[in-house]
Amino acid sequence: MKKITFISFLLLVLVYEGFAQESFSYGIGSELYDYGSSIFESEEYYYIVNLKNSEDRSHGASVIRFSNGNDLIEHEIVKKDTLCRLDYGATTDNGNIILVGRVDVENMHYLYTCIMSEDLVILTEKYFDILPEGYDWFYLFDMSKDENGDIVIVGHMDDHLPTSLYGMMIFRVDQEGNLLDFDYYVSPQWYDSTGESDLLRKADASGYYYFKAQSMNILEFNNALDLVDSSNWLGSYPYSLSKPVTAIYLADGNFGFLDRTSYPNYFYDMRLMIFTPEFEHVMDTVIEKEGRQCPAILKGMDYTDPNQIWVLMHNDMPTYTGVEDYEIFLLDSQLNIIESRVFGGDSDYRFNYLLATNDGGCLVTGSIRQEYGTNLTDIFILKVMPEDILTGMAEVSLPYSKDVLVYPNPFNEKIFTKTNNEGLVFSLYNLKGERLLQSPIRATNTGSINTSGILPGVYIYCIYNEQGTTVQSGKLIK
User: Fold this and answer.
1) Does the structural domain 2-403 have CATH classification 3.40.50.720?
2) Predicted model pTM
3) Which of 91, 330, 378, 436 has the most CB atoms at less than 10 Å from its CB?
């Protein structure tokens, strides 16, 4: 049974679908391009940091908070005459959250930190000019949280136009959003930061490893954020890292790596590797699937139980068909596959972040295409539990909100529907909850619903099955 919740004051579409206890999925978005960037967790809530587009297609940002499939709230960051982008967040010791990103003012980028209460009320905002002379552009690519709650972030910087200066930056902010340390490395390209690299706090807390910074497998930083070494310690091809890469410490102290490889062909498959703390190669496994495969871009592997390590792999096809799927794996402490499940098959997905949650589950975020043939996407959030994977079944479908295609949006004199499902009924409501029209939906054929008597405005549609259960809903504009 599907449960639909409307949050009209946010003017967003929210679809909830439970398929196991403590498991759920959301589709959230505007009519433009939105996606979930990263995830963090407090004792009571999950938080998703998002990129959202405004009506003029410029970047905006939001943070979403929820604990289950019923209590989602969202706060959008709106800055007049500026562009705002949030990338990462973390909890603080006093129960607040800190968000880190950037704002763009007149083609210049500034570091932006924001402290919020757990109810998503902004408490403080701070801005820092961190770019060296000659640079005006930066992106933040990964973060690590220290034992004392400070956040270290790496990123890329360049001059955007008209020349080709570039380099990497690394900085630290405290739990109040203050900039503590900052350093940057200009050229050569080996040290440049990339969006598919990975920052890992050293096990002995003496500094950080940054894996796959352009052509270098490893950069090593001390706690003062000084670059102390760079190397290709992992060895030569095929053991050198590819992007996107995720690195974790396994329970035995070894490194576990997830990346994708073009070996032995160019179609890309997912690879799991283990190296000792001295970076000696232990294990290399390639999971081959048809087509091109890709882990979650920013973080693709995580665990809270070392004997149940979560990994996500999704399609990275040259040409999307609109029926892509994705696969979630459970691995043991030595990266052997325990079980996996295939989801989706109803749209095309791009996943950015995977988080192993404290209840033993897994939370992922990214985007889902609104409609095949367009580049418009919605934020996609999925929560699964181990029992959803460990069933012995080969495959399960987890539809999003496209069991029935409803278009166009905005609509004019007609609304069209298309589905393969039988026995469905379409109803349209105003924001007061008053039903304005109802019409059966024809399976397999495109159906049309006359809306010539509907006044311009914002409306909510619901689609019911023969038992009267809501199976889909959304926002429509005339």
Assistant:
1) no
2) 0.77
3) 378
